[in-house]
Amino acid sequence: MRRPVEDEALGAAGPMDERWRAILRGETPLSFGPRLGRRLFSLVPSPWRCKFCNAPFRGPSAGAFRWIGYSPSRKNPQLCARCVERAPEGGALVPVTVLFADVRGYSTLAEGRSSIEVTATLNRFYGAASRALLAHEAVLGQIAGDEVMALFVPGLAGQAYPLKAVQAAQALLARVGYESPQGPWLEVGVGICSGEEYVGNVGGGGFKDFTALGDVTNTAARLQAVAMGGDILVCAATHAAVNAAYPDAERRVLDLKGKRDPVEAFLIRQAGRPTFTLPMREPPDRGE
Fold first, then answer.
1. Inter-residue contact 59 to 47 (CB < 8 Å)
2. CATH superfamily of domain region 92-269
3. Contacts of 253 (CB under 8 A, 6+ apart)
4. 119: helix, strand or coil
5. Using CB atoms within 10 A of its CB, is residue 218 exposed (0-12), middle (13-18) or buried (19+)?
6. Integer Cα distance of 200 and 133 in angstroms
7. Tell me, what's the pLDDT at 195?
8. 3-state secondary structure of 104
9. Dmax of the chain from CA atoms?
10. Which sequence spans correspond to the domains of the chain?
11. What is the pLDDT of residue 9?
């Protein structure tokens, strides 16, 4: 049961909406339409699309989509007008898996190349990451600097949404070359966390973005911050959901920035990634 302070926080983030709840949780037929639409729209070629419904913004079919309202939103050009201006306000407290992927050694990369070369490399990374994530039914979150964020909810990715997130992370790392004979063309680490938190249209002052807010998102970001290039660090809840598919995941107990208590995590290694020792906190002696 939620405490009053949690209800107050949710109210501040945005009004709870039954339609959002139905779509994101996937508990009613309302979720079928958006999920089918995302799948169909993803088949239409486009280098730029709505990060929520996948409607194409460019390409030969973009004009037809724009004519029926799927044009870039004036409030957030990463979303279409149907998903922002015409979407129900707010969101809902729903199960979610949050993924963060970040370029390792970005400062060194930026120092050793021209700004044009760095921009080209990051754009290549954004493209590779977007294709891998969208193929696994993610909703793209922030794409900025050297980092990408993605959300996986049951209403859009199915009930195996934590598994979809880990598979998306593996596909992302494969796209940057971790499984190729030449090795990666960019060092990338991934953090993933699952739980229940507020997901929906959040913003103010004329700006609105579809995102997730809460400790799940914070923990995923912290796990990503300590993941080495080519590795995927997942929280205990994510591991519990995907354990059968990844029985060799290595348990870690980590001290994460901003976390009062140690965090249990599991390391999933990507093929082609050399073994390393991740700094960790030793688990307590259960015999004490």
1. yes
2. Nucleotide cyclase, GGDEF domain (3.30.70.1230)
3. 262, 263, 264, 265, 280, 281, 282, 283
4. helix
5. middle
6. 19
7. 97
8. coil
9. 68
10. 4-83, 92-269
11. 46
3-state SS class at 88:
coil
DSSP state of 79: S
- CA-derived radius of gyration, the chain: 19
d(CA 266, CA 259): 17
Sorting pLDDT into bands at 50, 70 and 90, what band is 288?
very low
**CA distance readout (Å), 275 to 73, 190, 218, 230:** 45, 16, 27, 10
Six token digits for residue 89 = 């306000």
DSSP for 133-153 reads HHTTTPEEEEEETTEEEEEE-
8-state DSSP, 197: E
Ranges 10-24, 97-111, 163-177: which has the least confidence: 10-24
Confidence check: pLDDT of 140 > 80: yes
DSSP-derived pairing of the beta strands 207-213 and 139-144: unpaired
Residue 278, pLDDT > 80, answer no
Helix axes 161-175, 115-134, angle to 10 degrees: 140
Residue type, 277: T
Alpha carbons 238 and 258: distance in angstroms, whole number: 20
Q: How far lies 254's CA from each of 197, 243, 282, in Å? A: 22, 19, 8
Q: What is the pLDDT of residues 185-242, one digit of tens each?
A: 899 999 999 999 999 888 766 666 778 999 999 999 999 999 999 999 999 999 999 9
Q: How far apart are CA 151 and CA 192, in angstroms?
A: 10
Tell me which amino acid residue 124 is: R
